[in-house]
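The following record pairs a protein chain with its ligand, magnesium ion.
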Amino acid sequence: MNYVVVGAQWGDEGKGKLIDFISDDIDIAVRFQGGNNAGHTVVVGENEYIFHLLPSAILHKGKVCVIGNGVVIDPKALLEELAGLKVRKITITPKQLKISGLSHVVMPYHRILDGLRESKRQNKIGTTGRGIGPCYADKVTRCGIRVIDLLNPKVFKSKLADNLKEKNETFQKVYKQKGFNLDTVYNEYIKYGKKIAPYVCNTAIYLNKSIQQGKAVLFEGAQGTFLDIDFGTYPFVTSSNSIVGGVCSGSGVPPTKIDKAIAAVKAYTTRVGEGPFPTEFTSKFMDEIREKGNEFGATTGRPRRCGWFDAVMVRYSLMVNGISDLAIMKLDVLDGLKKIKICVGYKYRGKEYKDFPMDFDMLCYSKPIYEELPGWQEPVKGVSNYSDLPRNAIKYLDRLEQLLKVSVKYVSTGSKRAETIIRY
Ligand code: IMO
Ligand code: MG
């Protein structure tokens, strides 16, 4: 069986925890898009780990982790992540981690440009500042540098020289910045190349051969469906295809080899960065939920915006991803509320809509139509049997299933592995 796990909202749905506990059933875990803009938190015992580039399954002994061609890799960040694990006595060998030679490299000018572009924009995206957008832009405009180039000094130097000629002019003339010295960048990145070389291979061949041998693969999505470059709330999105469709182009594994797609959603909604958010709470209630849910970005530490569950959004998400099973995360954060709302439609200029709007203006100015359900007072925190949930919590989950027309297989009731309900 080959699975995909994606986020069905704006990221931070709890994919890290979900992936961690379904990793027992798989042999190989693959990242297929995004970069170190992701922040996946996994709690093992009393220890918390946050992964940015490494697949969240990396802590599972005997599993192979793959960073596919669709990912953009900041080698400095990757090496820091590996060094951070080493400090905690976890050494990742080339047998355990395979990196695609076709992945694009996030260069220092991408990181700087990310910030400079933001500073010039009137409508800021609120990016993570990790250089993700500029790196994907170079990939598409065909001037990107790939991991394999770092291993070939001649090719790397000539590509870098070409890039710097153009980029330095932009830095100096448009942004009034100094620009980059060819030798300095070259020497730094050649060193990174040497360090990651043992992990580099043709991961498309590795994955397809492994699948042929009957190995089970888990594709780990980063970000969420509404941050997808095509289906998200453009332009307030990331620069890759974070939906299930991104698996094939981002790993070289064909769609016929994907058996199941699982989506993670929070029992409410959050978003980091700018952009429309129809069900966003008002500030006082926002503070309360943010505090309870510890809703601060795992990558940037920014406070996350919080709101009610939006069934219109999630239904669209389940459709474009072909989801068979749903994981509802962080149900415990809703403990103790008197009433809980679910958005079931939008109202725009006096008309009601049941589908997610394409028009930006409509998305910004739509008012959510809510259904209200009674909350539960007994805590769900730590519950691991569905039948032990308070009656109103079960009612809430039942209603979500009805609205979304997909079954809820997993419910998370806390950050620990044991604080999870698996229904079937
Ligand atoms: P995980 O995998 C939440 C958001 C940023 C910004 C927009 C574009 O942890 O769920 P980028 O740096 O990608 O160009 O920023 O996307 N964003 C995320 N929000 N979770 C993430 O990843 C995100 N990765 C990017 O906040 O709004
Ligand atoms: Mg995150």
